[in-house]
Amino acid sequence: MEFDEIETIAVLGAGSMGHGIAEVAALAGYDVNLRDIKEEFVQNGYEQIEWSLEKLADKDQISQDEADAATDRVEPYVDIEAAVGEADFVIEAVPEKMEIKRDVYSDVEQHLPEGAIIASNTSSLSITDLSEETERPAGFCGMHFFNPPVRMQLVEVISGGHTDEATLDATEELAEAFGKTPVRVRKDSPGFIVNRILVPLMNEACWMVSADEATVKEVDSTTKFDIGLPMGAFELGDQVGNDVTYHVLEYMNDVLGEAYEPAPFLEETVEAEKHGKKTGEGFYDYEGGEGVDIP
Ligand code: 3HC
Question: Which residues sit with their C-beta closer than 6 Å to ligand 1?
Fold first, then answer.
């Protein structure tokens, strides 16, 4: 698939990344089929897109006409055949479990036109391993967005062991058409580049709290105000989703060793389903739960 043949994009998974990626693609003028396994999931993703576009329009970052046009370009689906049957490019953003992704690829390939590219927004899983679950490993790559996709400039374009140059070129050009800056990641290593650096930082912050060496607020005021990160380490964890951070660490721990063992404080937070902003509570309390009050 050449970049200039891409017209319809299917985004699979309407969660915090999927809906944000669909929004970015729709803003860039593409027809977007947003698909999730349940009507309520896809509807929730669609409403998040509407909320975000309205917010951008209220702040004059886009015009109301652009917001309305982008909303109109997104079609919500549960039926997989309808979502991918005429798609030129698929961006998969389903949960970070190999079994789930394998089943999704198998369903997708029953209906996806030959030549269409499949790109995974996985946070860490091996692109080579994922591509081997499809019948088009050469037409498969990583396309990793950052949260929130509509605000974050970078996209990692990751080559798996079987990805061909044409797929990488088309994916990079698509990221540029989305108004993003693609960075090609040559080596399919755990966490790619950004998460390999960022996720251990978030984990180290959790180890400090586990060992009672610092509080959530102390760590965040240091990382945000002294080191100069745009968000504190814990604020960032809540933005990304603590379940996502945990899954990335589990995978890096398996593949790279014990330096990446998730901290007990992170584990407890995830076990309590305090996944961050998306569940209303994480390290911080967004809706009156038990977390630390937002500073
Ligand atoms: N759409 C529209 N508006 C949004 C939004 C969205 N998706 N998300 C947040 N906003 C709004 C907020 O509601 C808030 O609105 P308000 O002012 O009316 O209260 C406003 O944006 C906050 O934005 P500001 O411009 O005031 O704040 P900043 O300039 O600080 O920008 C930020 C916010 C861009 C999120 C910035 O804090 C930032 O860059 N944070 C770091 C994020 C980051 O590093 N993400 C990558 C994480 S790693 C990852 O995702 C990989 C994964 O695989 C783990």
Answer: 52, 55-56, 123, 146-148, 150-152, 195, 198, 230-231, 236, 239-240, 244
